[in-house]
Write a structure and sequence with these properties.
Shape: globular
CATH architecture of the domain at 83-289: 2-Layer Sandwich
Structural class: alpha+beta
CATH topology of the domain at 83-289: Muramoyl-pentapeptide Carboxypeptidase, domain 2
Number of helices: 6
Amino acid sequence: MWANVTPVVQNGVRVSVCGQRWIDVGTLLATARSRIVVCGLLVLMLAHCGVATKGPRRPLPLPSSKPTNDLLSGPAVGTDIPPDVLGTLHVQTGNGTWRTIHWEKTSRSIGKPNDGSLVDGRAIPLEGPGWIHVGGNPFGTDETVLLVAWGVAEVGLRYPGTVPVVIGDLSAEFGGPLSPHNSHQSGRDADIGYFAAGNRPLRRFQGMNAESLDAEKTWYLLERLLLTGQIQYLFIHYDLQKLLYDAAHDSGWHPQDLTSIFQYPNGKSSRTGIVRHSPGHADHFHVRFRCPAGDDECVP
């Protein structure tokens, strides 16, 4: 399943957790009601290993409910999480199936992305199913960390053997100013590298162009995130927007629908679309999530 990812994955079948316990991924996939549950289990175990750089890395919230195909359904029957702390997200898998994730929500995003803070943030592990994290600022809201981890894992499911994508800064442990960024202060921002053509592995962000970018794979990740309905903005260099726009069109998106997603082809100064031009984003894209439900002190 997730080849080229550490902890050890051998033939996509067995995963070594903390170098001690082996988990049969094939069995998990066969018995779990959803790939989301498998991803959540693996990410939670990776976080539990304590692979930290600076500061503690609190475990990623585990999806704790049975998935449902009903996008608008409430909490799953039988969940033991109190309703007032129940986090809920809806995601669409690559085969078009909607799933609902529930977990015990603890984080809070305070204020604006460029003037805010983070309470009880979660940290994305240094590595996981489909990603490596570089830098010392891994903290985000429960929703930010969970959706980023889920999205990149989905790419590995769609394109088996895909090398890990590079994830950069999210926020500091308690949010606040984070050099050299103007934002990344309230746990809702994440920098993610592009996939390179030829499945070339990267250990850091790298500038992309028409020859070096794997536009199809990168668009697939963007599509998964966009379809959650939780994306406020995606900051991507304008020169790369055309490549991703074409990839989206080739995958079946109608141009009329893409007008609400892309700023392209209206010019980099146009204030339309979720995908916006921003200098410095030719080597990675910047995803900004919407204010999480229930975070009343969060400012869009």
